[in-house]
Write the structure tokens for this entry.
Amino acid sequence: MRFRDYLLRRLLLFIPSLFCVMVFIFLLVRMLPGDPARLALGPDAPMSQIIALRHSLGLDKSTHIQFLIFLENLIHGKMGLSLLTNRDVYQDITQFYPASLELALISMSIAIVIGIPLGIVSGIKQNKWIDHLSRMVSLFGVSIPRFWLAIMLVLIFSFYMKIIPISGRIGSGIPPPAHITGLYLMDSLITLNIPAFVSSLKHIILPAISLSVSPLAQIVRLLRAGIIEHKGAPHVMMMKANGMPENLINRKYLFKISFIPVLSIIGLLFASIIAMSFVVETVFSWPGIGRYGSNAVLYADFNAIVGVTIAAGVTFIIVNFVVDMFYGYFDPRIKYG
Amino acid sequence: MDRINYITKSISCRAYLESFFRGVYVLRKNTLALVGSGIFLSLLLMCIFAPWLAPYPRDAGDAIHLSQSFKSPSVSHICGTDQMGRDIFSRIMFGGRNTLLAGLIIPLVGASIGCTLGLIAGYIGRRIGSIIMRITDIFLSIPPLIIAFLVIGVFGPSLKNIIIALSIDWWPWYTRLMHGEVISLREETFVEASQLLGAKSTRTMFSEILPNAIPPIIVKITLDIGYAILNAAALGFLGLGILPPAPEWGLMVSQGRLYLPRIWWITTLPGVFIFSAVFSINLIGDGLRDLFDVEVM
């Protein structure tokens, strides 16, 4: 099967998983105790008003029709009013989403850029001091509570050393860069707005570090295990026996095959970053969907909860889709079948 | 290690148990795992016997001694006091009961649901099996913790709801792991022998296949206890878990945030306890993983 066909097939699989996520979220929301119309109008509302609202919300129709209405509204960008911001949830999410995406991408990049070299060195120099060091680092990384790490970083770098701002996304005196992608770092680079770039870099660094420790640790651990497993494999031994330079073996064969398990959990690590951003964004008052979502859960703002869940679910599915594209590069045995 | 696996796969449940105890013996030589078990056990005992051990047992609730508020760590208050003058160390001891309880129950509930489903799906197979695995895939396609937020959003914050919500998050992983194990064990000779001797399928499933699929499950449960503690504490931190004035480690970290940076001990010290609990359980998990020679995610 050619790569293009594989891509198409994956795209087709993408739709049912999206559909299932929607059904799941819809069913869970329908399990809500109480009548949404009565909740919206308060306990003293007359019966006629409740019936009218039920009708206009489509709550008097059967469940599958309600689900279709839910999907139709979603396609038209209507998710219902948020109690907290008094706007349509769709608007809120489109406003807050880029901040979260930027944070997640930077955290993932930190984890990958530091994690891969550390894992490789650790695997190749097994049981040397550098291996012990990086194993300790990764053990610390998976064990540290990320919200607590975030607070500790603020305490050290913002309160005591006063070199990094406490919260927010960009300095208060600096106008945000022109809206192109919504990612401040990228926008300010495109418009060559250096002060904005430096300020947003300073703001993003602490939340990104606190989000990246655990994925980094897991990348190091898996990569190390993979390299140790394949280092003694017959095909590597044979290449060594044939006198192939060690660097070439490593670069061309060992690293690639050891990277496959890492690739398979990158989607999952991204999901854990999304989930943990609920907490870390709260600590740093980062204006993303994580903070929005955790406020929504706290104040029982159902439309917003559903909106955030859908946004996170869709992101997760897309990331997994992108990750699947890379399998062919690292594992040439894959026939896209 | 191959030896142990070979024995477990070929003889019976009894031999399996024997090799398990042999494993415990081997584990005793792993210093790090031993240190981990020591730390975790002492934390556990500290929390279980909190009503008798805590220096100020009344401070776990809503006691108020305003004259004692914001005392920095000293001999009479090892971890200092909070805004109400309550002893932080006593609150940590009582709070650990909630945090560790959630951390221990969630993987166990998740594993019992997930393993049963995985066993059925793997052994019986056919339609039921593929239906179970499709449902599992759906649950796996939603980011973890997001389900938990949704469930807590719908049913309201409490410790019970955190446990339910996170267990819903966790079972699909066990189903998948168990399914894989069962599929590979199903073809082994001892399973065939059991079937030929006329054992019922439930007997074959639970007394032949299940004991042999246990090692990766044990490793996963151990490592998941750490993750469950972290997630339960994170939900508590957001105020979605147990409600104040009851103590919980994550909640205590968030309560101290208002008084930073001068009053550092309210936030810092409960976090140190979360970290040491998770760190020690990870040491045990790593030891078990080396012992059983399995790789789980």
